[in-house]
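Hi V.,

Quick status before I head out on leave. The structure for the redesign project is tokenized and pasted below; the design run finished overnight.
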């Protein structure tokens, strides 16, 4: 897959769905009701770097005159200003996020502030064998957009295996070029983000002596610690391997795409019983922040209330005790009993060539499982009413032409999914469930 194809995949239309997928749920209060008097100072596991980092993949959008969704620059500026004011200084973006517009929107907001007040993390987002010239062009374009003479943290984007690393980056000679740019000071820290099998991660670790990874970005949360999705690697293994090499860690998906902000009610009740005044999301952030090797935990804070809630967690940080970590692992074990799809709403699978709203279908399904409105059997109370309500809500949320029954199992989406979800299999499962509901077979 080349850059042009990926940019189409990560288009603003998809970004708009991503915004919807992250809409306020566990945190529902209006911004001015949430912690207008934030106190304390930002946690820094590494001096000079706020442990809460800003993921810039899902900036807020507004409808333009052309009827399409575009990044709301005014709101981005407001969010960035508030974040910087409260100690968030690490901003993670990519040339392909938000239809290729994330870097520019992020730069516009950040360049209103002194360069030394913010840290830029961006990526070499080549998704397929690429020429040296194309890679250099992407890298220099990032420098140009941010009007800067250096990138603080530069990543090879989404490594999945040794073969993937070699074909996308090493064969072209771009890795040696990046190392030289680091020696010249134009790149301050060089690393990679990872989704894949343990063998692929071990391959990258074996290259540490050659390239000296300054940091590595991994998916880590209290569920992925022992229960990774698809072909991903257990986070406890990833953390241990990086920790023993003393490599700083950047965390992506600390909320698993928002799923750990709105967990099933039976489980959220357990968390609320312990900390009734704190949000469900705060548990997940306290979990990753409690590990000393974690340099930064990224959160795609589309809404001010999300930013404020996360700031409350990290500015008045209370590390988890060993007992509290074990409690969260028990919650994770219980979550395995729920038929959820481990989709994070990243939109990499979109657009589907057959028009299917893949992340929308998964979100609707997961939301109903989480809320307890998932229809289980004819024996449940008010079955007929619940069945009718579910089917009507499904048709309203997902237009008929974009529903799961249109999947032909072409598998084009599977190779794009960083969670390694067997997407056609999950769509067939959901479609069978819908059909059973329609025919009253449940």
């Amino acid at each position: 897959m080349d850059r042009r194809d990926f940019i189409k995949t990560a288009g603003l239309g998809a970004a708009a769905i991503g915004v919807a997928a992250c809409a306020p749920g566990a945190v529902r209060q209006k911004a001015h009701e949430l912690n207008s008097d934030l106190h304390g100072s930002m946690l820094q596991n590494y001096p000079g770097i706020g442990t809460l980092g800003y993921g810039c993949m899902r900036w807020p959008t507004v409808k333009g005159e052309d009827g399409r969704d575009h990044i709301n620059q005014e709101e981005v500026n407001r969010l960035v200003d508030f974040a910087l004011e409260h100690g968030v200084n690490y901003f993670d973006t990519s040339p392909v996020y938000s239809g290729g517009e994330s870097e520019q929107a992020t730069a516009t907001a950040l360049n209103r502030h002194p360069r030394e007040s913010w840290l830029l993390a961006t990526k070499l987002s080549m998704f397929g064998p690429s020429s040296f010239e194309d890679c250099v062009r992407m890298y220099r374009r990032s420098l140009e957009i941010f009007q800067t003479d250096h990138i603080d943290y530069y990543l090879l984007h989404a490594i999945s295996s040794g073969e993937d690393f070699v074909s996308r980056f090493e064969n072209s000679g771009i890795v040696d070029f990046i190392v030289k740019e680091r020696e010249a000071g134009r790149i301050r820290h060089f690393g990679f983000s990872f989704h894949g099998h343990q063998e692929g991660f071990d391959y990258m670790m074996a290259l540490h002596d050659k390239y000296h990874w300054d940091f590595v970005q991994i998916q880590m949360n209290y569920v992925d610690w022992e229960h990774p999705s698809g072909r991903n690697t257990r986070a406890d293994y990833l953390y241990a391997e990086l920790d023993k090499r003393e490599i700083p860690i950047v965390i992506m998906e600390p909320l698993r795409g928002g799923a750990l902000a709105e967990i099933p009610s039976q489980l959220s009740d357990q968390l609320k019983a312990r900390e009734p005044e704190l949000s469900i999301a705060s548990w997940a952030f306290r979990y990753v922040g409690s590990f000393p090797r974690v340099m930064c935990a990224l959160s795609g804070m589309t809404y001010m209330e999300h930013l404020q809630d996360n700031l409350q967690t990290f500015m008045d940080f209370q590390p988890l005790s060993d007992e509290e970590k074990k409690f969260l692992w028990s919650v994770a074990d219980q979550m395995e009993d729920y038929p959820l799809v481990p989709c994070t709403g990243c939109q990499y699978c979109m657009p589907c060539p057959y028009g299917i709203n893949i992340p929308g279908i998964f979100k609707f399904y997961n939301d109903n499982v989480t809320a307890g409105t998932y229809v289980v059997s004819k024996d449940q109370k008010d079955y007929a009413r619940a069945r009718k309500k579910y089917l009507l809500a499904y048709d309203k949320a997902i237009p008929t032409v974009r529903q799961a029954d249109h999947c032909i199992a072409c598998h084009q989406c599977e190779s794009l999914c960083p969670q390694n979800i067997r997407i056609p299999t999950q769509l067939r499962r959901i479609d069978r469930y819908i059909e059973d509901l329609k025919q009253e077979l449940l």
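Above is the designed sequence. The chain has a mean pLDDT of 88.

G. will cover questions while I'm gone.

Best,
W.
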